[in-house]
Design a protein that fits this description.
Pfam family, one: MFS_1
CATH topology: Growth Hormone, Chain: A
Organism: Kocuria tytonis
Number of helices: 24
Oligomer: single chain
Protein name: MFS transporter
Subcellular location: Cell membrane
CATH superfamily: MFS general substrate transporter like domains
Main location: membrane
Largest sheet: none
Helix content: over 70%
C-alpha cells in the first residue's frame, strides 16, 4: 500500500509550526535535564552531608557512594514512567503527555529545594529525598520519547537527524544552565552561605522553567503522524504486549545503543566535578568551569552528530562517536590527573567529541526502528532501559572502582567496555530503516494482515468499508 504523503522536497524551508515544535521539544528536554543535573551536581558537592549526615561523619566515601546511588535510583522508575506515558501518548496524544511530565519533573525538583535536612527531621529527610527522586524518574521516563517523536515526525525525511538533535541538545543546555547556576552561587556566596541555603536556590528556580515550558508547549500542535492515527477507530488496547512480542530485538538494541553514551555522559555531568574537587583538591569553581567547557562541546558536537547522520548515515555517525569514546576513555584520566584547569577541561572536551555523534542521531534512529502505532512506547522504553544499564549508577560504579583500586583509569576501562557493547549493538541496526516512511499507512497494513476478516476503519485516502483479506492474501 503506497504512502499517502509525499516526501518533502530537498528545498524544504522550515515552517512556523516546525519551529514551534522544535522550540517546544528543546525546552522540555532542557528543563528535564536541568532538574536532573542540578541534583547530580548537588550530589557531587553537598547532599551527602545534608541528608546522610551519620554516614558522612563516620565514612565520607561511603556517604558519597550512597548519595550517588540516590542519583541512580530514579532511573529504575523511568521504564514505568515510559510505560504509562507511552500508553497515554499513543492513545491521547504527545502534547498532553509532555505537559504532564513537565509538571511532574518540575514539582519534584522544587520540593527537593524545600526539603528539611537530616539534622532537622532525621531519617525522614533521606526517605523523602528518595521519594522525590522516584517522582523525577517516573516523569522523565515519558518526557524524552514524546519530545523526540514530535521533532522527528515533523521533520522532512532528509533532515530527520538534524531535527531530532534538537531535543538531544536539551541535555547539554540543561547541564550548562545547572552548572552556571552552581558556579554563580559558588562564587557569589561564602562556603557557609552555600552550605546553609545557597544550594537550594537552583532547585527552586525550576518553578520559573516550568512556567516558560508550559507557555511554549501549549502552543505546539500534535504531530501529523498521530493525527492520522486518530482517524482509525481500531487501536491496540495493549500496545506494550505487541511491542515486547513483536519487537524484542529493537528494544534490546535501543537499550544497548544508549548505554555507553549515557554512562560517559554522567561522568561529564557530575563525577568529574566531584573527582576534581574531592580527589585532586581543585576548587569547586574550577571544576565547574571545566564542566561548562564540556557542556559547550557536548552541545556543538550533538548538533553536528544529528547533521552528520543525515549525510553519512545514522550507523556510521554512531560508530564514529563510540570509536572516539572507546579510544579516549582510559588515557583521559592521565590528563585529568594533572589537576591543571586547562588540561582538565581539555580532557572533558575531547570526550564530548565522541559523546555528540553517539547522541545527536538517537531520536531519528529510534523513530525509524519502530512502527507508528507503538513508536512512542518503543522509543521511551528503549531509552529508559538504556539509561538504567548505562548512566543510572555510573557515578556510583566509578566511585566504587576508585575506592577499591585507587586507580582512576579503571573507570575509563569500564566506560570503554560499555561503549564497545554499544558500538556492537549499533552495528546490528538495519541500515534500510533510515529514511523510511514514518507514515501510519505501514501500520494500518500490518494490522489488516494480522486481523483477517475484520472490518478495519481506513487510513485517510482509502475507501471506507475495507474488509481485511484472508490471511496470506495480498492487499494492494
Amino acid at each position: 500500500m503506497a504512502s499517502t504523503t509525499a516526501a518533502p522536497a530537498q528545498g524544504h524551508t522550515m515552517s512556523r509550526e516546525e519551529r514551534k515544535v522544535l522550540a517546544g521539544t528543546l525546552v522540555g528536554t532542557t528543563i528535564e535535564w536541568y532538574d536532573f543535573f542540578i541534583y547530580a551536581q548537588a550530589a557531587a558537592f553537598i547532599l551527602a552531608t545534608h541528608f546522610f549526615d551519620p554516614l558522612s561523619a563516620d565514612n565520607p566515601q561511603l556517604a558519597q557512594i550512597v548519595t550517588w546511588a540516590t542519583l541512580g535510583i530514579s532511573f529504575l522508575f523511568r521504564p514505568l514512567g515510559a510505560v504509562v506515558a507511552g500508553h497515554i501518548g499513543d492513545r491521547f496524544g504527545r502534547k498532553i503527555t509532555l505537559v504532564m511530565t513537565l509538571f511532574g519533573m518540575g514539582a519534584a525538583t522544587t520540593l527537593i529545594g524545600l526539603l528539611p535536612t537530616y539534622g532537622q527531621i532525621g531519617m525522614a529527610a533521606p526517605v523523602l529525598l528518595i521519594l522525590l527522586r522516584i517522582l523525577q524518574g517516573f516523569s522523565a521516563g515519558g518526557e524524552w520519547g514524546g519530545a523526540a517523536l514530535m521533532s522527528v515526525e515533523h521533520a522532512p525525511v532528509h533532515k530527520r537527524g538534524l531535527f531530532g538533535a534538537y531535543p538531544q541538545i536539551g541535555v547539554p543546555i540543561g547541564m550548562l544552565l545547572a552548572t552556571l547556576f552552581m558556579f554563580g552561587l559558588s562564587t557569589a556566596l561564602t562556603p557557609e552561605q552555600f552550605e546553609a541555603w545557597g544550594w537550594r536556590v537552583p532547585f527552586l528556580f525550576s518553578i520559573v522553567l516550568i512556567f516558560v515550558g508550559w507557555l511554549i508547549r501549549r502552543s505546539v500542535d500534535e504531530s501529523p503522524v498521530f493525527l492520522e492515527m486518530q482517524q482509525r477507530a481500531k487501536e491496540s488496547s495493549a500496545p506494550l504486549g505487541q511491542l515486547f512480542s513483536k519487537y524484542p530485538r529493537e528494544i534490546v538494541l535501543a537499550a544497548l545503543i544508549f548505554a555507553g553514551n549515557n554512562a560517559a555522559g554522567y561522568l561529564v555531568i557530575a563525577f568529574f566535578a566531584s573527582y576534581g574537587n574531592k580527589v585532586l583538591h581543585m576548587s569547586r569553581p574550577e571544576t565547574l568551569i571545566a564542566s561548562l567547557v564540556g557542556g559547550v562541546g557536548w552541545l556543538v558536537f550533538t548538533m553536528l552528530g544529528g547533521w552528520m547522520s543525515d549525510k553519512v548515515g545514522r550507523k556510521r555517525t554512531f560508530q564514529i562517536g563510540y570509536g572516539i569514546i572507546i579510544l579516549w576513555a582510559v588515557p583521559m584520566w592521565w590528563v585529568l590527573n594533572t589537576a591543571s584547569l586547562p588540561l582538565f577541561a581539555l580532557a572533558i572536551f575531547i570526550l564530548t567529541i565522541g559523546l555528540g555523534p553517539s547522541y545527536g542521531p538517537q531520536s531519528a534512529m529510534y523513530a525509524e526502528m519502530f512502527p507508528a502505532r507503538i513508536r512512542y512506547s518503543g522509543v521511551s522504553i528503549g531509552y529508559a532501559l538504556g539509561s538504567i544499564i548505562g548512566g543510572a549508577f555510573a557515578p556510583m560504579i566509578a566511585q566504587l572502582l576508585l575506592n577499591r583500586t585507587g586507580m582512576a583509569w579503571t573507570i575509563g576501562l569500564y566506560i570503554s567496555l560499555l561503549s564497545l557493547v554499544s558500538f556492537v549493538a549499533v552495528c546490528f541496526v538495519r541500515s534500510s530503516d533510515q529514511g523510511k516512511d514514518l507514515h501510519v499507512a505501514e501500520v494500518h497494513e500490518e494490522y489488516v494482515k494480522s486481523h483477517p476478516g475484520e472490518i478495519v476503519p481506513p487510513v485517510a485516502g482509502e475507501p471506507e468499508g475495507d474488509v481485511a483479506p484472508a490471511a496470506g492474501a495480498a492487499r494492494h
